[in-house]
Amino acid sequence: MIGGLLLLGSCEVEYHPYDTRIDGETGIHAKQITRIEQACAGRTALRFAVISDTQRWYDETNAVVDALNRRDDIDFVIHTGDIADFGLRTEFERQRDILNRLKVPYLVLIGNHDCLATGEDIYREMFGEFDFSFSAGDTHFVCLNTNSLEFDHSVSVPNLMFIEKELRNYPSTCRKSFVLMHASPKSEQFDKGLVNSFHRHVKAFPGLQCCIHGHGHSYAISDLFEDGILYIMCPQIERRAYLLFTVNDQGYEHEQVFF
Amino acid sequence: MNMSKYFFKLLCITALLGYMSEGYAQSTDSLSHRKLDTRQHQGYTGWKRIVPTHVKAQYAGGMGVMSVGGGWDYGQKCRWETDLLMGYLPQRYSDAFHVTFTLKQNYIPWSIRCHERFSIDPLTASMYINLIAGDEYWVREPDRYGGSYYRFTTRMRLHMGLGQRATYHLRNPQGVLRSISLYYEFHTYDLDMIAKCTNRDLKFRDIVHFSFGLKFHLMRQ
Hints:
The complex is a heterodimer of chains A (259) and B (221).
Chain A: H1 2-6, E1 12-13, H2 28-40, E2 46-51, H3 58-70, E3 76-79, H4 89-99, E4 106-108, H5 119-126, E5 132-136, E6 139-144, H6 148-151, H7 160-168, E7 176-181, H8 195-203, E8 208-213, E9 220-222, E10 231-233, E11 241-248, E12 251-258
Parallel strand pairs in A: 2-3, 3-4, 6-7, 7-8, 8-10
Antiparallel strand pairs in A: 2-11, 5-6, 9-10, 11-12
Chain B: H1 2-29, E1 54-59, E2 66-74, E3 80-89, E4 98-107, E5 118-132, E6 156-169, E7 177-189, H2 190-198, H3 204-207, E8 209-218
Antiparallel strand pairs in B: 1-2, 1-8, 2-3, 3-4, 4-5, 5-6, 6-7, 7-8
């Protein structure tokens, strides 16, 4: 009995796997975006890494954090969704604790697995809004929730109103844009009725470089609408690879880096 | 990790003690010595079998903040128990108020009567299924997914636990209560066990949670 009671210190109670009692840091995006915008202010060149679908791959997520921390040429890291596999609070917490080891700021988009059960509530509290944007120097990043299937058409996903607002309020200091999402417009998650209007909106962003997404679990580059706008798919972390984007006055380059 | 190892060592030692005590009890029965395991099943017969033999209240355990319910023990030494519990998860810990239902099966192999009024159960093993009520949870995926998309249920979880109990046996043989037990358990559940199997970085202490409760053993009326 006594021995068991001594263990109390190292174990926590759990009310329910899907409860929303978040242990640890919340409101991450607001803080990380401030860091990125301050660090990159006035710059026309930057380098960022993209990781995706780290769901339940804790060993690999730890390994990519170690690999990224060994570099000193990255400004920030973007995770294109599916941080959780079953939408469990503990999955969000474990992944957040691993990503918090990154030396550089990071942001996490919402994936379809992150929406399961109470996952949406946990995501919102831990990271922030489902649709958000930020600027790094003269480059604007628009991050969108494209997991239409998870919202059962009860709200407009993707949120075209948000995109229109972004276009109207496009920062005067920016000349280049990246649009990021979890599920691509051609995936089963995406609302079929919004595919063309979504892409039309996306194309309107000044100096659009490319669209970056996850969900498909492998590395791929597709000209989905055959109009020269590339959709670059980041592999899931199980492939032990991340994408590295280098942006400068001439445009951007990207490569897949194995770790 | 050290604490986890310590816990399993503790369980092994207490389980061994329980086993030895049973052997001791059997070997000394013939000498009319006091039994160490004094448990005796006092079940009902006929339709009265549906009358619960105990009621329980449990804190946490993946079945809500608090759960209450009743159950039945069986076997010559009440080694087996089946409980039906109902719990709640308040809105402050979730998106809305939720009720949960639990079917719990316990196995208590040994009991050591260390005092006239006290006994210790050195090992309890339990397995339970918990269901949570609410629109956002499903057993079968909603039709919009068009068949098997996620291939798991968010509504139902299978938990497993190991723990111990301490029991106070009441003096009053005419009353309703026979004994009161305080129990605790360390438990984990299906999805976390899957995660542990595929991740070396995930420690046992990451997937093991603590719960405790009270059992009120009822006198046969």
